[in-house]
């Protein structure tokens, strides 16, 4: 009986072979998707053919590893790559400013518009999708993400598809935002949320790319703190003049809340740079960590978390925030300590420090939830 023919493993043509972009100047990408085997020609009865089949190798050395182990060849599974590319935990930065701003408005008025909240949540998720996808596109253009396996551009193998998805997400988000503005009848909302989106644009998009000048963290603080959180506060305005709440006043309470939300969001961005300092330095992306190093950066994280709780206590003791916010937010101190300890211990380990931003995401989500529930309970106690 003749031996069965071995099946070579070859790579699918990249999507960029079919969808091209004029601004893609680098070599053709190979998408990190499952490879499909192709049939080998039959060579029965020929020892020479059998020998040739035994020495057959994949066209791409990584293909066989990826196809059978489901990974990227460097110990990272395909599922992990897709999870990192999706960045689902990062979408808490869409939920927290909206929820805290809405809770601040509820504390002020006792009103909650469920339909408006859900539409704004969908629009916020689309904005974050635009930020993530466009960031991958423009970091690919500069070479910052050339070796970043979880980059969406590298996974899909097409810059054009990724950019189209980013633009579509932004357009759809504005449809929801403008609807909410018309429903609330408050122009301050759409003005502030537009400023927040513009901060995201100048952060990463040409010709600005201010993140390459080390200005990403201030822009992040302004976008998600004073702009986004305060705009969502104004989104809870009511056009019903009979209740006397046509336009919400700008109070110290919502400003303090937005400041705390902005601080926790900025910690996420700051910690996301620890594991990519070498890549950023190579392409001239002068993030704060490139400038000061990881050891000093770990101290910045430490004092940033400590400042978060000091400010919370100061705002509460000065009656700017209700005491319920303080009582609930102090329960997140163990999470804050975990962030500090983890970064101090692993700041110089490129593999382990990757998780620092996700610990910051947890702190951001828990702390923001504590603020929102605290504001809600304070209003409920007053009404009762």
Mean pLDDT: 79
Q: Radius of gyration from the CA trace?
A: 25 Å
Largest sheet: none
Query: Which shape, going by the Cα principal axes?
Result: globular
Briefly note the structural class of the backbone.
Answer: mainly alpha
- Total helices: the number is 15
Q: Could you spell the SSE succession in H and E letters? A: HHHHHHHHHHHHHHH
Straight-line distance between termini = 87 Å
In words, what does this structure look like?
The protein is mainly alpha-helical and 384 residues long. 64% of the residues lie in helices and 0% in strands. It has 15 helices and no strands. Helix 7 runs antiparallel to helix 8 and helix 10 packs antiparallel against helix 15. The longest helix is centred in the last third of the chain and has 30 residues. The N terminus is likely disordered.
Secondary-structure blueprint of this entry?
Blueprint: H1 47-54, H2 61-69, H3 78-86, H4 92-109, H5 114-142, H6 152-156, H7 159-184, H8 187-204, H9 216-234, H10 252-271, H11 277-282, H12 288-317, H13 323-329, H14 333-346, H15 356-383
Helix pairs in contact: 4-5, 4-9, 4-10, 4-15, 5-7, 5-8, 7-8, 8-9, 9-10, 10-12, 10-15, 12-13, 12-14, 13-15, 14-15
Key phrases:
384 residues; mainly alpha; disordered N terminus
